Amino acid sequence: MNGSVLEAIGTPLVQIDSPEGATIAAKLESFNPGGSAKDRPALAMIEAAERSGALEPGGSVVEPTSGNTGIGLAVVCAARGYDLTIVMPASKSPERRELMRAYGATLELVEGEISEARERASEIAEETGALEMGQFENPANAEAHYRTTAPEIVSQVDGREIDALVATVGTGGTLTGTARRLLETFPEMAVVAIEPEENAVLSTGEAGEDDYQGMGPGFVSDLLDVELIDSIETVALPRAEEECRRLARTEGILVGQSGGAASVAARRVAERLARPELECPEPPQIDLFAEEAATTDGGDEAYDDCPLVVTVFPDSGERYLSTGLFD
Ligand SMILES: Cc1ncc(COP(=O)(O)O)c(C=O)c1O
Protein backbone atom coordinates (compact mmCIF):
# COMPACT_ATOMS: atom_id res chain seq x y z
CA MET A 1 0.00 0.00 0.00
CA ASN A 2 1.24 3.51 -0.83
CA GLY A 3 1.09 6.23 1.80
CA SER A 4 -0.17 8.80 -0.72
CA VAL A 5 -1.00 9.01 -4.41
CA LEU A 6 2.37 10.73 -4.92
CA GLU A 7 4.13 7.46 -4.15
CA ALA A 8 2.28 5.90 -7.09
CA ILE A 9 4.33 7.93 -9.58
CA GLY A 10 6.01 5.54 -12.03
CA THR A 11 5.15 4.07 -15.43
CA PRO A 12 5.58 0.98 -17.63
CA LEU A 13 8.02 0.66 -20.53
CA VAL A 14 6.22 -1.03 -23.41
CA GLN A 15 7.51 -2.44 -26.69
CA ILE A 16 5.70 -0.93 -29.67
CA ASP A 17 5.59 -1.98 -33.31
CA SER A 18 9.24 -1.99 -34.40
CA PRO A 19 11.10 -2.35 -37.70
CA GLU A 20 12.70 -5.70 -38.39
CA GLY A 21 16.04 -5.98 -36.60
CA ALA A 22 15.37 -3.36 -33.92
CA THR A 23 13.19 -2.80 -30.86
CA ILE A 24 11.35 0.38 -29.91
CA ALA A 25 10.13 0.72 -26.33
CA ALA A 26 8.01 3.61 -25.07
CA LYS A 27 7.59 4.89 -21.53
CA LEU A 28 3.84 5.40 -21.13
CA GLU A 29 3.78 8.46 -18.90
CA SER A 30 -0.02 8.63 -18.92
CA PHE A 31 0.10 5.95 -16.18
CA ASN A 32 1.22 8.56 -13.62
CA PRO A 33 -1.48 9.71 -11.15
CA GLY A 34 -1.98 13.06 -12.91
CA GLY A 35 -1.80 11.40 -16.33
CA SER A 36 1.51 12.77 -17.64
CA ALA A 37 5.29 12.87 -17.25
CA LYS A 38 4.87 16.18 -15.47
CA ASP A 39 3.85 14.60 -12.16
CA ARG A 40 7.54 13.86 -11.67
CA PRO A 41 8.92 17.43 -11.95
CA ALA A 42 5.85 18.79 -10.15
CA LEU A 43 6.64 16.69 -7.08
CA ALA A 44 10.38 17.34 -7.31
CA MET A 45 9.94 21.13 -7.61
CA ILE A 46 7.55 21.26 -4.63
CA GLU A 47 9.88 19.08 -2.54
CA ALA A 48 12.90 21.25 -3.46
CA ALA A 49 10.96 24.38 -2.38
CA GLU A 50 9.93 22.68 0.89
CA ARG A 51 13.50 21.65 1.60
CA SER A 52 14.90 25.13 0.95
CA GLY A 53 12.20 26.70 3.16
CA ALA A 54 10.85 28.78 0.23
CA LEU A 55 7.50 27.00 0.57
CA GLU A 56 5.93 26.70 4.01
CA PRO A 57 2.88 24.70 5.10
CA GLY A 58 -0.31 26.21 3.61
CA GLY A 59 1.75 28.37 1.18
CA SER A 60 0.80 29.52 -2.35
CA VAL A 61 2.24 28.47 -5.68
CA VAL A 62 1.87 30.02 -9.16
CA GLU A 63 3.02 28.57 -12.50
CA PRO A 64 2.71 29.37 -16.21
CA THR A 65 2.11 26.15 -18.14
CA SER A 66 0.57 24.85 -21.31
CA GLY A 67 -1.19 22.22 -19.25
CA ASN A 68 0.47 19.11 -18.00
CA THR A 69 2.74 20.78 -15.44
CA GLY A 70 -0.35 22.55 -14.14
CA ILE A 71 -2.17 19.25 -13.73
CA GLY A 72 0.88 17.67 -12.07
CA LEU A 73 1.21 20.62 -9.70
CA ALA A 74 -2.54 20.51 -9.03
CA VAL A 75 -2.21 16.87 -7.95
CA VAL A 76 0.82 17.56 -5.73
CA CYS A 77 -0.61 20.78 -4.23
CA ALA A 78 -3.91 19.02 -3.46
CA ALA A 79 -2.09 16.15 -1.75
CA ARG A 80 0.25 18.47 0.18
CA GLY A 81 -2.22 21.28 1.04
CA TYR A 82 -0.92 24.22 -1.04
CA ASP A 83 -2.93 26.89 -2.82
CA LEU A 84 -2.23 26.84 -6.59
CA THR A 85 -2.79 29.37 -9.41
CA ILE A 86 -2.09 28.27 -12.98
CA VAL A 87 -1.60 30.72 -15.86
CA MET A 88 -2.28 29.08 -19.19
CA PRO A 89 -2.61 30.15 -22.87
CA ALA A 90 -6.33 30.18 -23.74
CA SER A 91 -5.56 28.10 -26.87
CA LYS A 92 -4.80 24.91 -24.91
CA SER A 93 -7.31 22.08 -24.70
CA PRO A 94 -10.41 22.46 -22.47
CA GLU A 95 -9.81 19.06 -20.85
CA ARG A 96 -6.64 20.44 -19.26
CA ARG A 97 -8.45 23.42 -17.75
CA GLU A 98 -11.24 21.26 -16.34
CA LEU A 99 -8.76 18.82 -14.84
CA MET A 100 -6.87 21.56 -12.99
CA ARG A 101 -10.12 22.99 -11.68
CA ALA A 102 -11.21 19.52 -10.58
CA TYR A 103 -8.09 19.28 -8.39
CA GLY A 104 -8.98 22.66 -6.86
CA ALA A 105 -6.48 24.92 -8.67
CA THR A 106 -7.33 28.50 -9.68
CA LEU A 107 -6.95 29.06 -13.41
CA GLU A 108 -6.08 32.27 -15.25
CA LEU A 109 -6.20 32.19 -19.07
CA VAL A 110 -4.11 34.58 -21.17
CA GLU A 111 -4.21 35.39 -24.88
CA GLY A 112 -1.01 34.42 -26.67
CA GLU A 113 1.43 31.65 -25.98
CA ILE A 114 3.58 30.39 -23.13
CA SER A 115 5.77 33.55 -23.09
CA GLU A 116 2.68 35.67 -22.30
CA ALA A 117 1.70 33.18 -19.59
CA ARG A 118 5.19 33.43 -18.10
CA GLU A 119 4.95 37.23 -17.88
CA ARG A 120 1.56 37.10 -16.17
CA ALA A 121 2.68 34.43 -13.68
CA SER A 122 5.64 36.60 -12.65
CA GLU A 123 3.26 39.52 -12.06
CA ILE A 124 1.04 37.34 -9.85
CA ALA A 125 4.09 36.13 -7.91
CA GLU A 126 5.12 39.75 -7.29
CA GLU A 127 1.61 40.90 -6.36
CA THR A 128 0.65 38.02 -4.05
CA GLY A 129 3.94 36.56 -2.81
CA ALA A 130 3.03 33.17 -4.34
CA LEU A 131 6.06 31.04 -5.16
CA GLU A 132 6.80 30.46 -8.84
CA MET A 133 8.13 27.01 -9.63
CA GLY A 134 9.94 28.18 -12.80
CA GLN A 135 9.82 24.86 -14.65
CA PHE A 136 11.93 26.28 -17.53
CA GLU A 137 14.86 27.04 -15.19
CA ASN A 138 14.25 24.92 -12.09
CA PRO A 139 16.96 22.20 -11.85
CA ALA A 140 14.51 20.02 -9.86
CA ASN A 141 12.55 19.56 -13.12
CA ALA A 142 15.40 17.70 -14.85
CA GLU A 143 16.49 16.14 -11.54
CA ALA A 144 13.08 14.44 -11.28
CA HIS A 145 13.74 12.57 -14.52
CA TYR A 146 17.34 11.84 -13.47
CA ARG A 147 16.09 10.31 -10.22
CA THR A 148 12.92 8.55 -11.39
CA THR A 149 12.28 8.20 -15.17
CA ALA A 150 15.80 7.04 -16.06
CA PRO A 151 16.33 4.55 -13.18
CA GLU A 152 12.94 3.02 -14.00
CA ILE A 153 14.06 2.58 -17.63
CA VAL A 154 17.40 1.05 -16.58
CA SER A 155 15.61 -1.59 -14.54
CA GLN A 156 12.84 -2.14 -17.15
CA VAL A 157 15.20 -2.96 -20.06
CA ASP A 158 16.26 -6.10 -18.15
CA GLY A 159 19.96 -5.79 -18.85
CA ARG A 160 19.62 -4.84 -22.53
CA GLU A 161 21.85 -2.08 -23.86
CA ILE A 162 20.01 1.10 -24.94
CA ASP A 163 21.28 2.43 -28.30
CA ALA A 164 19.24 5.61 -28.51
CA LEU A 165 16.99 7.81 -26.38
CA VAL A 166 14.49 9.79 -28.45
CA ALA A 167 12.70 12.54 -26.52
CA THR A 168 10.44 15.51 -27.19
CA VAL A 169 11.51 18.90 -25.87
CA GLY A 170 9.38 21.43 -24.03
CA THR A 171 11.22 22.64 -20.94
CA GLY A 172 13.92 20.08 -21.76
CA GLY A 173 13.52 18.45 -18.34
CA THR A 174 12.68 15.00 -19.72
CA LEU A 175 15.55 14.94 -22.22
CA THR A 176 18.17 16.49 -19.94
CA GLY A 177 17.46 14.44 -16.80
CA THR A 178 16.76 11.12 -18.52
CA ALA A 179 19.69 11.35 -20.95
CA ARG A 180 22.19 12.35 -18.25
CA ARG A 181 21.34 9.36 -16.09
CA LEU A 182 21.05 6.84 -18.95
CA LEU A 183 24.44 7.92 -20.36
CA GLU A 184 26.04 6.94 -17.05
CA THR A 185 24.92 3.34 -17.68
CA PHE A 186 25.00 3.39 -21.52
CA PRO A 187 27.84 5.81 -22.46
CA GLU A 188 27.53 4.98 -26.19
CA MET A 189 23.81 5.82 -26.31
CA ALA A 190 22.72 8.42 -28.90
CA VAL A 191 20.46 11.22 -27.69
CA VAL A 192 17.90 12.44 -30.20
CA ALA A 193 15.74 15.51 -29.59
CA ILE A 194 12.37 15.99 -31.30
CA GLU A 195 10.88 19.31 -32.28
CA PRO A 196 7.96 20.56 -34.38
CA GLU A 197 8.77 20.85 -38.09
CA GLU A 198 7.11 24.28 -38.21
CA ASN A 199 8.82 25.56 -35.04
CA ALA A 200 12.29 24.06 -35.21
CA VAL A 201 14.25 26.39 -32.92
CA LEU A 202 16.92 23.82 -32.07
CA SER A 203 17.61 22.89 -35.70
CA THR A 204 17.25 26.30 -37.34
CA GLY A 205 17.68 28.84 -34.54
CA GLU A 206 14.37 30.39 -35.59
CA ALA A 207 10.99 30.13 -33.89
CA GLY A 208 7.88 29.48 -35.97
CA GLU A 209 4.18 28.94 -35.43
CA ASP A 210 2.72 25.56 -34.58
CA ASP A 211 -0.18 24.06 -32.66
CA TYR A 212 1.58 21.28 -30.79
CA GLN A 213 0.46 21.04 -27.19
CA GLY A 214 3.37 20.68 -24.78
CA MET A 215 6.45 20.44 -26.99
CA GLY A 216 8.37 23.08 -28.95
CA PRO A 217 8.05 26.15 -26.73
CA GLY A 218 9.52 28.42 -29.46
CA PHE A 219 12.72 29.17 -27.51
CA VAL A 220 15.61 27.16 -26.11
CA SER A 221 14.85 26.53 -22.45
CA ASP A 222 17.59 27.29 -19.91
CA LEU A 223 17.09 23.81 -18.57
CA LEU A 224 17.84 22.02 -21.83
CA ASP A 225 21.43 20.76 -21.89
CA VAL A 226 22.02 21.05 -25.65
CA GLU A 227 25.46 19.44 -25.23
CA LEU A 228 23.73 16.12 -24.60
CA ILE A 229 21.97 16.14 -27.99
CA ASP A 230 23.56 14.15 -30.84
CA SER A 231 20.88 14.80 -33.46
CA ILE A 232 17.45 16.34 -33.94
CA GLU A 233 14.34 14.96 -35.64
CA THR A 234 11.60 17.34 -36.75
CA VAL A 235 8.04 16.05 -37.06
CA ALA A 236 5.14 17.86 -38.73
CA LEU A 237 1.97 18.05 -36.65
CA PRO A 238 -0.33 16.25 -39.18
CA ARG A 239 2.15 13.33 -39.28
CA ALA A 240 2.25 13.18 -35.47
CA GLU A 241 -1.55 13.20 -35.27
CA GLU A 242 -1.83 10.44 -37.87
CA GLU A 243 0.55 8.39 -35.71
CA CYS A 244 -1.63 9.03 -32.62
CA ARG A 245 -4.54 7.46 -34.49
CA ARG A 246 -2.42 4.50 -35.63
CA LEU A 247 -1.14 3.86 -32.10
CA ALA A 248 -4.68 3.98 -30.73
CA ARG A 249 -6.26 1.80 -33.40
CA THR A 250 -3.57 -0.80 -33.97
CA GLU A 251 -1.68 -0.93 -30.66
CA GLY A 252 -4.26 0.16 -28.09
CA ILE A 253 -2.03 3.01 -26.91
CA LEU A 254 -3.70 6.41 -26.54
CA VAL A 255 -1.24 9.32 -26.64
CA GLY A 256 -1.29 13.06 -27.26
CA GLN A 257 0.40 14.87 -30.15
CA SER A 258 3.89 14.83 -28.63
CA GLY A 259 3.60 11.06 -28.10
CA GLY A 260 2.69 10.72 -31.78
CA ALA A 261 5.77 12.77 -32.70
CA ALA A 262 7.92 10.65 -30.38
CA SER A 263 6.70 7.49 -32.06
CA VAL A 264 7.42 8.82 -35.58
CA ALA A 265 10.91 9.98 -34.61
CA ALA A 266 11.74 6.77 -32.68
CA ARG A 267 10.74 4.71 -35.71
CA ARG A 268 13.05 6.73 -37.99
CA VAL A 269 15.96 6.26 -35.57
CA ALA A 270 15.20 2.52 -35.18
CA GLU A 271 15.10 2.09 -38.97
CA ARG A 272 18.56 3.64 -39.23
CA LEU A 273 19.97 1.42 -36.47
CA ALA A 274 18.12 -1.79 -37.47
CA ARG A 275 20.03 -4.96 -38.22
CA PRO A 276 17.44 -6.99 -40.18
CA GLU A 277 19.85 -9.93 -40.37
CA LEU A 278 19.28 -10.42 -36.62
CA GLU A 279 16.23 -12.01 -35.15
CA CYS A 280 15.35 -9.69 -32.33
CA PRO A 281 13.77 -11.51 -29.42
CA GLU A 282 10.07 -11.02 -28.83
CA PRO A 283 9.04 -10.07 -25.30
CA PRO A 284 6.76 -12.52 -23.48
CA GLN A 285 3.08 -12.28 -24.45
CA ILE A 286 0.56 -11.97 -21.67
CA ASP A 287 -1.45 -15.09 -20.85
CA LEU A 288 -3.68 -14.49 -17.86
CA PHE A 289 -4.50 -18.16 -17.53
CA ALA A 290 -0.97 -19.56 -17.91
CA GLU A 291 0.09 -21.93 -15.12
CA GLU A 292 3.62 -20.55 -15.12
CA ALA A 293 4.98 -17.07 -15.78
CA ALA A 294 6.04 -16.71 -19.40
CA THR A 295 9.73 -16.48 -20.15
CA THR A 296 11.42 -14.66 -23.02
CA ASP A 297 12.69 -16.68 -25.91
CA GLY A 298 15.75 -15.60 -27.85
CA GLY A 299 18.29 -15.57 -25.05
CA ASP A 300 20.74 -12.98 -23.85
CA GLU A 301 22.99 -12.88 -26.92
CA ALA A 302 20.21 -11.79 -29.24
CA TYR A 303 19.20 -9.15 -26.70
CA ASP A 304 22.74 -7.78 -26.59
CA ASP A 305 22.92 -7.31 -30.37
CA CYS A 306 19.42 -6.15 -31.17
CA PRO A 307 19.37 -2.31 -31.34
CA LEU A 308 17.07 -0.82 -28.72
CA VAL A 309 15.50 2.63 -29.03
CA VAL A 310 13.74 4.06 -25.99
CA THR A 311 11.29 6.93 -26.21
CA VAL A 312 8.86 8.71 -23.90
CA PHE A 313 5.14 9.22 -24.62
CA PRO A 314 4.47 12.24 -22.36
CA ASP A 315 0.69 12.03 -21.93
CA SER A 316 -2.62 10.46 -22.92
CA GLY A 317 -4.80 11.14 -25.94
CA GLU A 318 -7.77 11.38 -23.59
CA ARG A 319 -6.56 14.92 -22.86
CA TYR A 320 -7.24 15.93 -26.51
CA LEU A 321 -10.51 14.21 -27.42
CA SER A 322 -12.31 17.55 -27.83
CA THR A 323 -9.74 18.71 -30.40
CA GLY A 324 -10.89 16.05 -32.87
CA LEU A 325 -7.48 14.36 -32.81
CA PHE A 326 -8.99 10.87 -33.09
CA ASP A 327 -11.83 11.72 -35.49
C1 LIG B 1 2.34 16.86 -23.82
C2 LIG B 1 3.77 17.20 -23.57
N1 LIG B 1 4.70 16.72 -24.38
C3 LIG B 1 6.01 17.00 -24.20
C4 LIG B 1 6.45 17.80 -23.18
C5 LIG B 1 7.91 18.12 -23.06
O1 LIG B 1 8.50 17.69 -21.85
P1 LIG B 1 9.66 18.52 -21.16
O2 LIG B 1 9.05 19.78 -20.62
O3 LIG B 1 10.17 17.66 -20.08
O4 LIG B 1 10.69 18.84 -22.19
C6 LIG B 1 5.49 18.32 -22.31
C7 LIG B 1 5.87 19.19 -21.21
O5 LIG B 1 6.10 20.35 -21.28
C8 LIG B 1 4.13 18.02 -22.49
O6 LIG B 1 3.18 18.51 -21.69
Q: Could you outline the blueprint of secondary structure elements for this entry?
A:
Layout: E1 13-16, E2 23-28, H1 39-52, E3 60-64, H2 68-80, E4 83-89, H3 94-102, E5 106-110, H4 114-128, E6 131-132, H5 139-156, E7 164-168, H6 173-185, E8 190-196, H7 201-204, E9 231-235, H8 237-251, H9 257-273, H10 300-305, E10 308-313
Parallel strand pairs: 2-10, 3-4, 3-6, 4-5, 7-8, 7-10, 8-9
Antiparallel strand pairs: 1-2
The chain binds pyridoxal-5'-phosphate.
Which labels suit this protein?
Rossmann fold; binds pyridoxal-5'-phosphate; 327 residues; six-stranded mixed sheet; four-stranded parallel sheet
Report on the structure:
A six-stranded mixed beta sheet has the order 1-2-10-7-8-9, with helices on both faces. Helices cover 38% and strands 16% of the residues. It is globular, with a radius of gyration of 20 Å. It has helices spanning 39-52, 68-80, 94-102, 114-128, 139-156, 173-185, 201-204, 237-251, 257-273, 300-305, and strands at residues 13-16, 23-28, 60-64, 83-89, 106-110, 131-132, 164-168, 190-196, 231-235, 308-313. The chain has two domains: 5-31 and 139-323, Rossmann fold; 39-132, Rossmann fold (3-Layer(aba) Sandwich). It is an alpha/beta fold. It is built from ten helices and ten strands. The termini are far apart. Bound molecules: pyridoxal-5'-phosphate.
